Amino acid sequence: MNKKKSKKGLVVLLLILAILIAVVPFLMLKDAEFGGSDDAAGGAIEEIQGGEYEPWFTPILESYLGGEIPGEIESLIFCVQTGIGVGILAFFMGRFYERKKWMKDE
């Protein structure tokens, strides 16, 4: 009974810690602006060149759609790319793991 009580207390403590880790940064960084790496690179190039940065080309989907891609669609495409990459990586890691098991059996 005592072991269950201590595990329950640990779980509650870890849940509180997880909530604090998620909430505290939002409270500490109220007026922070988060920009992407594209914005940072454009700003750095403008500082070096002394003029306005003009990209060499426009993304394929932006030229096809006739304007900028909405943020939600951009995020969706990024997530799909990530899912495909993780799937491929997991497939090959599984194959290597199974091959290792098969070699042990022989």
Topology (SSEs and partners):
Elements: H1 2-28, H2 37-49, H3 60-65, H4 71-105
Question: What do you see in this structure?
Answer:
It is a single chain. With 106 residues, the protein is an all-alpha fold. It is built from four helices and no strands. It has a domain at 67-105. It has helices at 2-28, 37-49, 60-65, 71-105. It is flat and about 70 Å long. One of its GO terms (biological process) is cobalamin biosynthetic process.
Q: What features would you highlight for this structure?
A:
106 residues, mainly alpha, flat
How is this structure best summarized?
The chain is mostly helical.
Query: How much strand?
Result: under 5%
Q: What string gives the helices and strands in order?
A: HHHH
Largest sheet: none
Q: Please give the alpha-carbon distance between the first and last residues.
A: 47 Å
Rounded mean pLDDT is: 83
* Helical segment count: 4
Unreliable stretches covering 5 or more consecutive residues:
none
* Helix content class: over 70%
> What is the molecular shape?
flat
Number of strands: 0
Helix-strand makeup class: mainly alpha
